[in-house]
Amino acid sequence: MYGGIDIGSRTVELVLLDEKGDISIKEMVDSSYNPIERARDIVSDNEIKHLVATGYGRYRAQAGFADEVISEIKAYSISATHHYPKARSVLDIGGQDIKAISLSDGDVIDFVLNDKCAAGTGVFLERVADSLDLDIEELSQLALEYEGASVELSSKCAVFAESEVISLLHSGASRESVAQAVHDSVVNIVLGQIRKLEIQGPMVFGGGVAHNRYIQKELESELNYKVLTPEYPELMGAHGAALHAYQKTKSR
Amino acid sequence: MVSFEILREIGVDVEKYDRYRGCGMPSHLKEAWDENNLLELEYFYRVRAGEYSRVEEIYKAKKEGSVVVGSFCLFVPEELVLAADAIPIGLCGGSSSSFPEAEPILPREVCPLIKSYVGYKLGGICPYFELSDLVVGETTCDGKTKSFEVLNDLTDEEIMVLHRPNTRDQRSREIWRDEIHRLKNEIEEISKEKISKQNLFRGWQKLDMKKKRLQEVMELRKQPNPPITGLESLMISQLASNQNPQKYTEKLEKLQNALIERETPYKDKGPRLLITGSPLVYPNQKILRIAEEVGGRVVHEEMCTGSRYYENQPKLNENQTLNKMIEVLADNYLDIPCACFTGDTDRTDQLLQKIKEFDVDGVIHHSLRSCDPYSLEAYQIKNKLKDKGIPTLVIESDYSKEDIGQLKTRLQAFIEMTK
Fold first, then answer.
1. ipTM of this complex > 0.95?
2. How many CB atoms lie within 10 A of CB B240?
3. What's the rounded Cα separation, in Å, for the pair B215 and B52?
4. How many angstroms separate the CA of residue B46 from the nearest CA in chain A?
5. Could you say which of 3.90.1150.10, 3.50.30.20, 3.30.420.40, 1.10.10.10 is the CATH number of the domain covering A85-229?
6. Tell me: the pLDDT tens digits for B268-296?
7. Residue B180 near residue B329, CB atoms below 8 Å
8. pTM for the full model?
9. Shortest Cα distance from A240 to chain B (angstroms)?
10. In this structure, are strands A89-93 and A98-104 parallel, antiparallel, or unpaired?
């Protein structure tokens, strides 16, 4: 089998492809305090001909057990093009970062990563969900359903947003309106990143936050092109790495 | 190692010096040194590691009557200092180790270079600062301009500030020539040496030999298989403004001869990269080091600790009058391609020329955080180079370690894209 492992800040994902290049095994665990050991654990149960690592832990994985490393940018692009050959761009909103990638015939021609800050990422949503005593699905569901007057969240920082949420609630804003405000804030931050590039659609949207229908819908209406989400958006990094392992081994 | 008695005598806070000096051999350089053991590079590695301090040499020279002129910027012509038999020295500003000294005074978001040197001075950590009889500052950006006021207020350092004009038109050139005259007078006064045309010519010759030699070494990297890595080259360039000119030039000459025979130290034929932007001041090598760790080959540094130091050398000749010499010097220095100018910003054309000469596949535009001139020019450079088919990666960073993971991802993705 051909493996791809994505060792991220929040989760570790493993994808294994069979001889036809189809996904035969997929796994996802929390990174916990020792992501490399978590990665080694889920790899060691399998026979892997070639293992490609990506994500923040990729170099440590290479020193330990992986055969090769590629950047998350490349991994996401490979997976996106595999799912949607006509994709012109990729957006990944992960646990702690945002990546926007511009593609031409499947090749990366430009990209941006957010600054060293969790604004607009999964952590940002999680923090706010916590302070509203909701889980992340409930938070997005509230945002989708809310149709009243909108409120604005001015802070872009995950830490400060939490205290702003509390003061909004104290000033009488409803939980629903705050849930929507938080999502709008994420959408604005993400659009700011995307617009740094000359980016076109269709766009493939990956990473854990791609499950969020509100954000997907808002992005589509702001960008005026298709924003497509594959079946397992959080596995795109590992899947792209596995496809790279597959293609490389097969072409030898 | 320099003796603590001397340090104490010149006014260094020895305890802080021992704790905070940003010197020493970091593990990545130690590895590089172990791998490519070229004897002729040893001197540079040892200086880099802080083993050959110049403190004692300068201390003795001062006892014999020499004066020391410290500066932070290429706009201060070393020729004039050498002409008065004084010692020019580049001051410390490349490490975050002195930040705690500056943080109570400076705003949080100030450029790390400024925070660093202000910290070094306030804490009495940098011996070269303490050895300086005159510190020459300049108005190359707002942060620096105001930082010299802070140092003037809080320390007893003698600081002269050169007023660098914002454009290079005729009126600006006149102002700048006046400034260089003012610097000449100041150096004459503190050194009690008259700067004659003969002295200036001799000072220029010393520097010219050094810069030409440095340029020749750096241009060996035009070859398809560069005989020296970007990391080694940056290490050498970073030391250019604070080593003994004669010794440094001799070592460069030996290195140059050795490099002609040397096989390329690069294991892979990664993309050829050019780094431009804010200076990478000793000991900061972060961006360049990561770029090479993830498979790039850095073949040129278009920055103050790179080509801007050794290129565009003024041409003086003995038949010129002293005034003419100063005019030539001033005009040449004003042409240093710093992003702080407006009006005739031809930095892209100069970059394109270098991209051709060094067969560059991709450009890294690096600015220090809060460095407005470079971070604001980044989009212009990126777009203009894009029109010519040259990919550019724009990076903003500082002296911390917290963004190393992100930088690795960006640089690796850029290298994958440039291949």
1. no
2. 19
3. 23
4. 29
5. 3.30.420.40
6. 999 999 999 999 999 999 999 999 999 99
7. yes
8. 0.93
9. 14
10. antiparallel
